[in-house]
Amino acid sequence: MKPEANLTGLFVPLVTPFTDDLRLAPDALARLADEALSAGGARGLVALGTTAEAATLTTEEKQAVVRICSAACRAHGAPLIVGVGTNDTAAAITTLRELAQSGDVTAALVPTPPYTRPGEAGTLAHFTALAEHGGLPLVVYDIPYRTGQPLSISTLKALRRLPQVVGVKYATGAIDAATMELLSSSTPGFTVLGGDDAVISPLLAAGARGAILASANVRTADYAELISLWQRDATGPARRLGTELARLSAALFAEPNPTVIKGVLGAQGRIPSPAVRLPLLAASADSVRRAADLATARTRQTHEETAA
């Protein structure tokens, strides 16, 4: 019996705002969290994901980010997913137990162990240990582009049978026969969440029940609407919006994530600075400008239609 997590709809993996001198900007993070869950219409938040630059945050900063996101989710009655990315199984169990003790975390987003590349048997053993000893529901993060470890459909099916595994963030970079097999064979209490921003629309059309999308930091309400349109089988509007958002996502990922996203948010005045921490470098002005234009395109069109 799987725990009740209800991980459908849009989850926004929030950026971590910094000041120009690279200090955490907690007030800006709190505003982003509230905006995503209120006007943005997101189902929930993800803290400490790749988009949050979690690898560069201190332990104290990570704790602050989780506290801020937890407060926003409590206020809105929304689920919170927290990223736990490590190739050390014992350390991951310790972190999961600490998060579970807070009572505010719905699930942990856990990638296939990066760099170590333990093979599929080792990956299954890793998640089995986390499920048995971590005390928190798990969302498997399948992203071979970053981990160097692809997962076969048989391994994914074995993972979803684990009682504590409640979903997968599916970001393999392709929609193929394995994708369709995964989506066509459901397991109660297990949700497939799309994680490839540029192809999220066809993945939703194929049966994914939600998404974790970095691009949704920028046009949250539109990505939430896209998911809703596909869930309502509003095929025509979903295709049109999906095509538009695919162009935006491509622009937002023109340089390493989340540099362009932070550039756009900074230009919009939603965060105090576009600053990122090394080894990332700030996005170029051209990339930010192109993405910012696409980020406001639908807003301008809506205003023009209303005026007419």
From TrEMBL:
Q: Where does pyruvate bind?
A: T51, I212
Example GO BP: lysine biosynthetic process via diaminopimelate
Quickly give the catalysed reaction. L-aspartate 4-semialdehyde + pyruvate = (2S,4S)-4-hydroxy-2,3,4,5-tetrahydrodipicolinate + H2O + H(+)
Subunit structure and binding partners: Homotetramer; dimer of dimers.
Q: Does the keyword Amino-acid biosynthesis apply?
A: yes
**Where mainly located?**
cytoplasm
PANTHER family in UniProt:
4-HYDROXY-2-OXOGLUTARATE ALDOLASE, MITOCHONDRIAL (PTHR12128:SF66), DIHYDRODIPICOLINATE SYNTHASE (PTHR12128)
Give the enzyme's main class according to its UniProt record, as a single word.
lyase
Q: Name one GO cellular component term.
A: cytoplasm
> Per its record, how is this protein called by name?
4-hydroxy-tetrahydrodipicolinate synthase
Q: In which pathway does it act?
A: Amino-acid biosynthesis; L-lysine biosynthesis via DAP pathway; (S)-tetrahydrodipicolinate from L-aspartate: step 3/4
A Pfam family hit: DHDPS
The UniProt site entry described as Part of a proton relay during catalysis is assigned to T50, Y115
Q: Where is the active site?
A: Y141, K169
Keyword Calcium: yes or no? no
This protein's UniProt keywords: Amino-acid biosynthesis, Cytoplasm, Diaminopimelate biosynthesis, Lyase, Lysine biosynthesis, Schiff base
